[in-house]
Amino acid sequence: MTPDRKTMPPHGMTPAGDPLRTALELAAAGVPVLPLRAGKVPFGNCRPCVRNACGGRPNMKSAGPCQCPDVCHAWAAATTDPRVIDSPSWVRAWRRAVGIGYHPGGAGLTVVDLDSSAAVGWARQSLPPSRTVATTRGEHWIYQGTMRSVNGVREGVDIKSTMAYARWRGHGTGTVTALPDAVRALAVKEPSTAQRAPSAVTVSVLGGDGKCRHRTPAYLERGIAMAEQRITDARSAVHATVYRTFLAVLSTHGRCGCLTDAHTARLFTAAQAKGESARHCAAAWANARTALGM
To answer: Which one is predicted more confidently, 73 or 217?
Structure first.
């Protein structure tokens, strides 16, 4: 594998027992690195940079003039510059470091951090395979491509890419594959509303006369059947698929009064067969109604 800023570094590099040498080799492969102190966290800002009084690192979201030579500003300290990595202040940090961190987004990568055996099991069922790195409690799945970082997208699942750091735990196994839509969809958030089911499933008419604008009952039946199938066919991002399907059904059929409890029960049953709880179904339905102003 030819090293560049869009791939993980090749195998056969220095063991992790020499963090400075490993960091330099990672940087040479295009992976921005930083030392991690006790607790597996970045070193704190130096006194002049506390609370970003310096204006921040130039590569932070709030770009600023800081040119501090110390290991400051967490993920934004990550660099591929060997002169910085091997500078006196950084060498002092490496001597105290317990590990190596890296900025996945800076290397054109996304890390799906699976923090439990249950999360790993879910990923094996739901996500396309890619390079896998064993961790203390689970696995890191490495994909090529970047996205925003989000913690807690599912129980035991974090996404680390832009504006975040991950701990370097070795090369892992497998080939890095392109970042799939199934991972991007994990970052989709539903509107925040009260977590309760609507008191009546049949929706009220908003701005209409209550007459069904569909030419035949078969139109509604076909729409419900297609919605059921869409949920049933979901292989990943089930929660997001359920919400979007509910949104589509309500957008098409929700204002003429033709939806009944029986129709909604069919959609809820399909969602629960894919692992969604009754509470999540009710919340997704309520959120979809709110998004449409119902």
So the answer is: 73
